[in-house]
Amino acid sequence: MAPASSSNREISRRSFLAAPALLWLRQTRAFAERRRLDLAGIPWIHIRNGGAPLRLLRIHGNEETAREAVELFIEETAGEAWIVESQTRHVLLGGLRLDPNRMFSREGAEKNLRMLNPDAGDGVLRALLDQLDRDRDALMKALAPPPGGLWVAAHNNGPGYSIDTEAPISQRVHRPQPETPRDFLLFTDEGDFDKAARGPYNAVLQNRPGGEDDGSLSRWCAARGVRYVNVEVAHGKLDKQLELLRWLAAALP
Ligand SMILES: [Zn+2]
Prior knowledge:
The protein has 253 residues and is α/β, with parallel strands linked by helices. 36% of the residues lie in helices and 23% in strands. The strands form 2 sheets. It has a 10-stranded mixed beta sheet with strand order 1-2-3-5-4-8-12-10-11-9, with helices on both faces. A two-stranded antiparallel ribbon has the order 6-7. It is globular. Zinc ion (ZN) binds next to loops.
C-alpha cells in the first residue's frame, strides 16, 4: 500500500484549461483541487471544490460515464468527489480481486473475495479481511459526508439491471418514467425519497435492508441513517446522469 504522503496536489487540468465562459466561476469559487491517494489499499482520486457537505462517489472503474459525470458536476457544484482510480469494475487488493462496493462490511467482502478468487487460501483471505477491518474506519471518515450531508454515488448499468431489479426489495417505488427503467435513484432516507416521489424521475427507497449483508455502501448507509443516493443510468447516458445529479443538488440541498 502506498502511503498517503505520496499523494500529490495539483490544480485540476479542467480548471486550468477553463474556457472563457467559465471565468465568472473563478471569481466566486476556488479552483477544484485534485489529488491522488491510497486508502484501504485502493487508489483514489479526490477532488475538492469548496467546503460544502455534498459528497460524490464513483466506485466502479468500468463505469466511465459515471466518472465523467462526477468530474464535470464537481466543477460546477461545491463539495467533494471521490473516484476509484481503475479501468475495471474490480480492484486488486493484496493480489486478490474485489468489487469495491462490497468492502463496507467484513461479511460482504468475504463473500465477494471467495466468489472472485476461488483458489485463495483461508489464511490469505483472513489476513486481507483483517486489514480491511483495520482500514475501514479511516476510509469512511475520509469519504463520508459530515453529519446531515448528502452522499451521492454515480453508477452505470447494463441491460440486466434496472429499477425492476430493486423494486421487490424496496420499501417504496416511484416510477414516472417506465420507458427508461435503467435510469433511477436509490435512496436510503425517506425524507429525501419523499421529495423525489413528487419529482419526475424513477426512484426507490431502501431504508430497511433485509436479507444477507452484501457489504454495499447503500446498505452501510441505511443501517446508520446516513443520507445516501445511488444515481443509476445506463452506460453512455452522460446527459441523463448530469441531469439527475443537477436535479438532486437543487431538490435536496
Ligand atoms: Zn456500479
